[in-house]
Amino acid sequence: MPGTYKLLSLICSWFILNFIGSDPGKFFAQDIAKPFRNSHFIIVDSVNFHYRIWNDGLEKPRGKVVLIHGFMGSTFSWRENFDSLVKSDYEVIAIDLPGFGYSSRDLKVNQSQSNRARLLWDLLAELDKKDTVKWNLVGHSMGGGTAEAMALVQPERTHSLTIVDGMVFLKNENVQGAFVTASKNKQYNKIISSLVEKNVLTYNRIESLFKKNYGYIPDSATVIGYLTPLLIDGSAESILSVFSNSKEIINLDSRELEKLPVLVIWGEDDRTISLKRGKRFVKNVPSAELKIIRKSRHDPMETNPKEFNSHLIMFLNKHNKLK
What we know:
323 residues
């Protein structure tokens, strides 16, 4: 019976995703050409980026916010947060990092935090054109490190920084270890990629991963929302390139954030990136304030959206005064 129930759940979720449609911040037919109603694509430095935008038609937005997902995530990761930002009159952009979501899979792209920061700033420059309003950067997990790097690379274009259970650093270093060495070997890379594709990018494994991240079993629509872009050809290799091709191009030091408003939000029971890491970061960045979400793990923006959104909006409103 459990297997039958899961099959029925999958069928229902597929029906919802493909036929009912809804608000662009929720579920919509997931095809690569137009994954969501507010999907856009732009080529920057040979990378075909997928991004989504809300409130771009506002004459006077309160501020501009860019959302950056974590490892194996996508713009889908922020589905519980768009509405609050939109209702608070922010122009919002969510971006799929290279190799993830619906952005292109190019193994030549350097996946270091400093190079991701460079790419995203180039993307935002294309969208900004002559607009000089600064950006509020928000990043989760791996994307938290990317957001931190962005703030350090171009502080003059950064209005504020929010890090959620992030892969923060005091000084950025290249990813190292035996796994990295193995993944750089072509023969080993093929073997590891095959193992990842067959044993990691499956419904059961994604469900298990997010059970750890959430603290409970996610519903089938959530699993499908994460799994769908991960089934795009080249995803397994792209996941490995995060480790095998991540040479930092700029040396960065978190102490240079001291003049920037920084909010750090962390799940109290995070078992992926320990709260201790967040506390250590805050201790070394005097301008940072820490908000701990009780009874939450690695994805508080999804599991505790009401409290998360309250912290985020309060912080943004404090530093984005209405004119």
